[in-house]
Amino acid sequence: MNWKNLDRGIFLVNVLGIVYDPKTKKILIGRREKDEYLPELTWCFPGGRPDYNHSLIMSLIMEIKKKTNLDVNVLDCIFARTLPKNQNLYQSTIFVKLLKKQVNQKQWKNSRK
Question: What is the pTM of this model?
């Protein structure tokens, strides 16, 4: 599909989760490689593009599980925006809380306080 021929109403949607572990007071940040829409982006919160069969919230929960094997509970939407360098990309960032009591330390290797 040629996005430039469309004047409005069509966005690529991306949902990201700020995964917070209240026990360790850390958030999870993942390393990205070869992103075709934002090639300069190297670190980000886990998430992805939702499918048409699920809500944005359910898609986010499934993407986080698929990419990190973590179970999360959605708390609130933090913000949503289009990106200055790519106006066709709509990004929604959602605050989620870690549900598992034990987290593999390797999964938190690149996390920051």
Answer: 0.72
